[in-house]
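Need the bound structure for adenosine-2'-monophosphate, inputs here:
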Amino acid sequence: MIRLFVAISVPEMLRQRLSGLRGQIPGARWVRPENLHLTLRFLGDVDEDAADDLDAALSRITAPRLQVALSGVGHFASRGQVRGLWAGVEPNDALEHLQTKVEITVQRAGMAPIGRRFHPHVTLARCNDTRVSRIDGFLAEHSGFRAPPFPVDAIDLYSSTLGREGAYYTREATYPLPD
Ligand code: 2AM
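Answer from helper R.:
Posting the output first, comments after.
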């Protein structure tokens, strides 16, 4: 089995900027700069045959190239606890279109529907035991975060393995978007 997800890779310059948003938040595990990405579709654990089918299907995706601009920060929470801190994405029809294409493609390749709305974001930190009140300062400090748009000419298939220091992501394949 291999744990896979489809993502947009974030350029090095922007990863550096995002790393600058790190702060002192109890319980936050900050994502290593090289791991910062924008997930289009989490696929979970799939067997080798399914991974081959996904790869073949994804290699046939056609969607226009696009630009993506990161903007603002936010969090996911459940039961009063912060689960993740993220940088947001400016509203972007081309990105929605691309994600829909990916969703249709992976379903045709045999994946079950994900059943929740696409909420584009770049996760900055995952949190354990962090009360929502502990991130007020972080949210206020970075509410004005804006980055220039970056070009997206391809999407990537990543695998994820758990190591001692957290998840390691490997780019398994790149699927260029047509001109
Ligand atoms: P996240 O950044 O919001 O945590 C690899 O784990 C990527 O897949 C992450 O970007 C993660 O989103 C996303 N993902 C979506 N659903 C997931 C799930 N159920 N388990 C793990 N990762 C998931």
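Comments: The chain has a mean pLDDT of 96. Residues 2-176 form a domain with the Cyclic Phosphodiesterase; Chain: A, fold (CATH 3.90.1140.10).
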